[in-house]
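re the bet — no i am not wrong, look at it urself. input seq straight from the record:
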Amino acid sequence: MKYIYSDDKAKDAHWDFCEKNHVPFIQLSNINKEYINIFFDITNYNISLEEISDDIKKLYSAYIEFCMLSDTLIHDLYDQYYFFNLIVKREHANFLAENLYNYLSFKLGNL
C-alpha cells in the first residue's frame, strides 16, 4: 500500500511498515467535498529535505497552474517551511498520491 487515509484504523501499522521498509509515508485527509490534503513524511531518511521540498513545490505549482486552481487553501500552502502538504482536487488524489510515492521512492533510492 503506497498511501493511507487519515481515518483508516490501520494508519499506525502503515506508519510502522513505512519506517521498517524505508519507504515514504503518505497520508490523505479529507478537507471538504472538493479537496483532499496529501501529506508525506520522509524526515527519517538521509536526503536533503530542502531539495525534495523545492522539487515537490515546483511539481505542485505546475499542477495548480495546469488545473487552474486558485483557492485560498491552496495558496496558503506556499508558507510551509518544508513543502510536505499538497491540497489537490478529490478526483486527482489517488493518482497523485500513488505517483508521489513512486517519485519519492525513486529519490530515496528505492526504485
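see?? Residues 4-108 form one domain. told u. also The CA atoms of residues 57 and 76 lie 13 Å apart. so pay up
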